Amino acid sequence: MAEAPAQDRGARSRDAILDSAGELMSRYGYAATSISMISAECGLPASSIYWHFGSKDGIYVAVLERARTALLTALPPAEVPGADVAERLDAFLAEVQRAFHRQPHGLKLLLGLGMVQQDASAAAVAEVHHYRDALVAWTRDALSAVFRLHDRPQVADELARFTLRMASGTVVARWFDPSAVMDTGALHVALLALAAHHDVLVHGTSGEGSRSRDVTDRE
């Protein structure tokens, strides 16, 4: 009967280490976060940290895995509701904003610059790329639904990567100003303009109405 409590204590210790490591690495970056800093933050000895994760890189990979799982789980289905492009785009950006605020540390870890340093392992780099690929896929599917781009995957992919670059820019801004927020209004306009560049319909739901070049009149 003593085994289960021991397992529970082990799980709690592991979670405490990951909580502290995630907080520190999102604040200072991978290279500047030491085992001693993590130990001081979580209140557990370095020996316990090494027992659970083996190395600093093992902690980093586990932190990234947890951040990726939490962030992707929090994302809504890619099918975006709304009667027209404007409504669907507003709904999509509202979800992006909510995800951004729910997982600030995870986004810093997974989108921020300088997180993967030269001394991080191939496993850590692969985890970041795995996350980014999954996020690009979700964003591409969502924007494909917003703009009805199911037959134009390259355009949907361009819109998705542009959106994520904007999100990354906000993450970087937060290094200097923690109160910085994503400007979804500007992103709304920019996405419509980028869609206009590709002659994508922005009015109606089935190809009826004006083309996206009319968006300037609408705004």
Automatic annotation (TrEMBL):
Residues 34-53 bind DNA. Gene3D superfamilies: Tetracycline Repressor, domain 2. Residues 11-71 form the HTH tetR-type domain. Keywords: DNA-binding, Transcription, Transcription regulation. PROSITE patterns: HTH_TETR_2. SUPFAM superfamilies: Homeodomain-like (SSF46689). It holds the Pfam family TetR_N. PANTHER family: HTH-TYPE TRANSCRIPTIONAL REGULATOR BETI, HTH-TYPE TRANSCRIPTIONAL REGULATOR RUTR. This is HTH-type transcriptional regulator MtrR.
